[in-house]
Design brief:
Layout (H helix, E strand, L loop, with lengths): L3 H26 L4 H22 L7 H27 L2 H24 L4 H18 L11 H18 L8 H21 L8 H27 L2 H8 L2 H12 L6 H17 L2
Helix pairs in contact: 1-8, 1-9, 1-10, 2-7, 2-8, 3-4, 3-6, 3-7, 4-5, 4-6, 4-9, 5-11, 8-9
Protein name: DMT family transporter
Keywords: Membrane, Transmembrane, Transmembrane helix
Family: Belongs to the EamA transporter family.
Length: 279
């Protein structure tokens, strides 16, 4: 498992799964309350990860691993809540790229301090990938005031914190700590919904897409942990953070949305970055 190929493969699988989950969750939130979709998706993730742990016959994780997972879940819930709010009050062209780039940059800085600096070629790949994520997430012609920028930064800290803390889980533990993260995230969302004065219900027709979003998100989490356990945290984080490319691809394939020139340049940069990061 501990090889550059494993890290690259699992990192890209995490990006594909997270991107598909974001697309599916975005479809669901067009017709249902964000809290409803979030609660259903997190509950589905708990069930899926616990089932995978049982199917894998994974030994129940020790308390430290479960603790890392629980802390990561709180950060993940913070990231989701802050990002959705940033998208509601600000511009997607600002909120999305700021969140994605900061979420990728924080684990890179942490890994540089804890694991040492990567090679110069990998540094070049990191730069190309971060630039690609920014361009992919930023629609053509997007501009406007920085309204919601603070929330976008908070979302980036939440997602980056999730990657850092869940990256502390050591093999062979994978699914039980991730299940703990989902439980923690679910409880955090329940508290947030109650504090907001509403515990919404999701229409039955949207239960399936919301649950599918949760399953895809859980799959992305699992792939990310496997990627990190196979190599370096910064490499796994940068590759997994290419998830906006999968979202854009599905929007083009399913909804017929046009890929802008800016996004095309970002996708090309990301493709060039992958072999450099894999060195």
């Amino acid at each position: 498992m501990g090889s550059p190929l494993a890290t690259v493969s699992f990192g890209l699988a995490a990006a594909a799964s997270w991107g598909a989950g974001d697309f599916t969750g975005g479809i669901a939130t067009r017709k249902a309350d964000v809290y409803a979709v979030g609660l259903v998706s997190q509950a589905a993730g708990v069930v899926a990860l616990a089932a995978l742990a049982g199917a894998r016959a994974e030994p129940f994780a020790p308390p430290p691993a479960l603790g890392w997972g629980a802390v990561a879940g709180v950060f993940g819930a913070l990231g989701i809540a802050a990002l959705y709010r940033a998208l509601a009050v600000g511009r997607m062209g600002i909120a999305a790229p700021v969140t994605a780039v900061l979420a990728a940059a924080l684990p890179v800085c942490f890994a540089a301090l804890s694991q040492g600096l990567p090679s110069p070629l990998q540094f070049t790949g990191f730069g190309l990938a971060l630039g690609g994520v920014w361009l992919i997430s930023r629609p053509e012609g997007a501009g406007g005031s920085p309204e919601g920028l603070g929330l976008a930064l908070l979302a980036g800290v939440g997602f980056g914190g999730f990657m850092i803390f869940i990256g502390q889980v050591q093999a062979p533990a994978v699914f039980w700590p991730l299940a703990a993260a989902k439980v923690s995230s679910l409880l955090s969302m329940l508290v947030a919904a109650r504090a907001a004065g509403r515990l919404p219900r999701s229409p039955r027709s949207l239960l399936l897409p919301a649950a599918l979003a949760g399953l895809l998100d859980a799959g992305g989490n699992a792939f990310f942990v496997l990627a990190e356990q196979g190599g370096r945290l910064d490499v796994a984080s940068i590759l997994a953070s290419l998830y906006p490319a999968a979202t854009v691809f599905l929007a083009r394939l399913v909804l017929g949305e046009r890929v802008s020139r800016t996004q095309a340049v970002g996708i090309a940069a990301a493709l060039i970055a992958i072999p450099l990061i894999a060195t």
